Amino acid sequence: MITRQKYQDYINVLKEELIPAMGCTEPIAIAYAGAIAREHLGCLPERVEIEVSGNIIKNVKSVIVPNTGGLRGIEVAAAAGIVVGDAAKELKVISEVSTEAVSAIHKFLETTPITVNFSDSKKIFDIMITVYGNGHSAYVRICEFHTNVVEIREDAKYVLQKDVALEDSLDFTDRGFMNVQEIIEFADTARIEDVKDLLDHQIECNVNISEEGLTGDYGANIGKVLLKTYGTDDVKIRAKAKAAAGSDARMNGCEMPVVINSGSGNQGITASIPVIEYAKELGVSDEKRYRALLVSNLITIHLKSGIGRLSAYCGAVSAGCASGAGIAYLYGGGVDEVSHTIVNSLAITSGIICDGAKAPCAAKIATAIDAGILGYHMYKEGQQFYGGDGIVSKGVENTIKNVGQLAKEGMATTDQEILKIMTKTQSN
């Protein structure tokens, strides 16, 4: 039986993670820092200095920043936030931008010196922006996650300062209490009125951007390719295609919001769209759909908690695995079915690397969802992977811990090599 405190903890985690964002969240975090810095400087800067950790460079390098006229890069994200950003909107900081404002961003980029440097910070997620103008400066640091502002300075005066070595500086509910068995119990017993608004917003935003991806022309159009190649009759194909289409649009400048999960719009799309599509196919009640979305979202968060916000381990793997768990729940599965789905799917796709946010993410999402669905159907057919099969250990929580160790510790060097390759590779 889940205690009242744990029940509230699960609600709090959902409220902290299922938030709206427009654009890939790493460049948007840079824009957010830029908007805050501009506010504290009090004028348009004459010069900008930016320091970021390697994973920020990795996730900003190749993705289009929305409302910039198709531009990419750290300098672009910072300029957008500085020139037209509204810091009060947080991860929707550049969601309302006029044509004239886009021109102003371009002019700022042409006339204002902006330098970008690698940070020697030990943090995986670290953004530092200093802006200069009218003989003054303002400094903003965002660390650990996308809206966690830990330092603001006006000249030498501290306006805000948190100790980033302390866990409570994160202003987040600790995730250590989560486990698969309790997630299923929470999903079974949650009061729908406590989660309805959150999930309705996720459904609305993520379905809308998925539909835009299928009707527009974005990136490599993975969603369209899947439907054209395999048809629309199979729910599995539609689930993969519609999720991929949402990523197609999001990675390639679509100016529509998504509800993210674990700091990622791609993970938010992957955790939700397949479950929504299967719920429609199976004709389940709205209540069952909500409860399945709780399973998928919370399993994603649980998996990502051991991995970290950014890693060389592709986040779509966790969300695709979790969508398989949500689908298993839609079919009437409980702890046993969900646990086996998770283990089976993690065994299949845990080798997929994250080489930054970009168009190919959509294809990785389709692959991860396929593994999640296969993981469930393996269980239905009496098939499974066993402890000792590679990184699989007996018990779902042990396998989840193994994945966290693989991603956070084992792939640290891989992350460095990916960044080296990305920073020297030119587009074909």
TrEMBL record:
GO terms for biological process: L-cysteine catabolic process to pyruvate. Coiled coil: none annotated. Pfam families: SDH_alpha (PF03313). InterPro entries: Ser_deHydtase-like_asu, UPF0597. Residues 150-420 form the Serine dehydratase-like alpha subunit domain. One of its GO terms (molecular function) is L-cysteine desulfhydrase activity. HAMAP family: UPF0597. Belongs to the UPF0597 family. This is UPF0597 protein GMD11_02140. It comes from Phascolarctobacterium faecium.
